[in-house]
Amino acid sequence: MEISFIHCADLHLDSPMVGLKNLPVTLHTKLKESTFTAFKKVIDTAISKKVDFMIIAGDIYDGEDRSIKAQIRFRDEMLRLEEKQIEVYLVHGNHDHLNGSWVQIELPPNVHVFPSMVSVKQFVKNNLSVNLYGFSYETRHVKERKIDEYARRDPAHFHIGILHGNLEGSTEHSSYAPFQVKDLLAKKMDYWALGHIHKRGILESIPPIVYPGNIQGRHKKETAIKGCYYVELREGDASLEFIPTSVVIWEIVKIDASTVKTFNDLYMLCRKQIDEIGDGKSSFIITLEIEQLRIEESFLESDLLEILQQDEVDADSFVWVSSIKLQENTVWLKENLLRESAFYEELFAVTKDSELLNEAVAPLFQHPKVHRFLEELTAEEKKELAEEAEDLLLTMLVKSGR
Ligand SMILES: [Mn+2]
Asked: Averaged over 82-105, what is the pLDDT?
């Protein structure tokens, strides 16, 4: 007794991929296409592995308007699965909730969409039955503990829960349909197909409770290779294989610049590190984080970025530097400054003054359109802000040539 399926989530088809100035047109085209290309890889895998069905755990579309282009492309991929008699079980998430306004493109009959109430759908092959449980987001904000509405319904050989929601305590994503791992375990499912959190994670192995992450990163914070899971489920046993699908990989590359003395050294060091990333197969968009910089020459980040972007790029496998974060060795800088004049001592004291900090952020917290989205700053956040202020001050002093 065995079933196999693909579990993917957070396709975000037709993600706009904004904010990349200077990206050459060919690379931009590839990036704009990447969510579709990645999804095609998911479908190719389903077909080549001859899976019984596919689960899509929410956020198929990036926007609640579900662009017609995205819907047509999605339908075309569904048709490819229909040809191979592969069923699809999907839920809509906060990004593509049922209440959005869109032109409805009809999907083939192999696609089963869960309604907004937690419901069960049954997959049957020969004498084997699988119960799948799930719900789609009615509106963007589903804050209730929908997990409480899930109930295993026997008889069936396998039970699979599909849930687009947030693991309690995870702060990177909005806290929709929150749950704890113990809540899921209590439901006695054989597999939990999660979606919403874009970072891949296996929360439990028996039974598997899985966030596959998204299939293609959409911005510099969605780093590393993205993909989906190919799952084989047997009685009391499961095996998972990660299938990479991302077309363009976002990465943060840290460079320790403590040994460089001149701008030219720095440039050469960056160049070398960038060349080491390229593997001739994959494409990367990277943020360079240059740390421990202590060179005396003054230069602009934008200049360094510009020359790094000037080198030839190959659309099939490129490494593109999208931004640079320069971090001076602040201890060294501060020491230098303090040696220069007592004025700096006073200046740095300013960033430690919590009254001044409160004053500085007050307009934001009082703004009628903004304040309701903000939460009070914690002591830790205030400390971070003060440190960032000091770093900023130092950086500005360096850039102004002191
Ligand atoms: Mn998502």
From this structure: 91
Compute the distance from residue 366 Cα to the ligand 1 centre, in Å: 31
Does position 348 have pLDDT exceeding 80, yes or no? no
CA of 17 to the centre of ligand 1 (A): 14
**Positive or negative torsion for Cα 63, 68, 71, 77:** negative
Instruction: Give me ligand 1 centre to Cα 95, in Å.
Output: 6
47 alpha carbon to ligand 1 midpoint, in Å?
A: 24
Residues 6+ apart with CB under 8 A from 111: 78, 87, 88, 90
Distance 210 CA to ligand 1 centre (A): 15
Q: What is the pLDDT of residues 194-205, one digit of tens each?
A: 999 999 999 999
* Domain range list for the chain: 2-246, 248-328, 343-402
226-240 confidence digits (pLDDT tens): 999 999 999 889 999
2-246 — its CATH code? 3.60.21.10
Phi, psi of 40 (to 5 degrees): -60, -40
Which carries the bigger pLDDT value, residue 147 or residue 330?
A: 147
Taking residues 104-114, report their average pLDDT: 94
**Is 108 within 8 Å of 79 (Cβ atoms)?**
yes
CA distances from 286 to 258, 272, 322 (A): 21, 14, 6
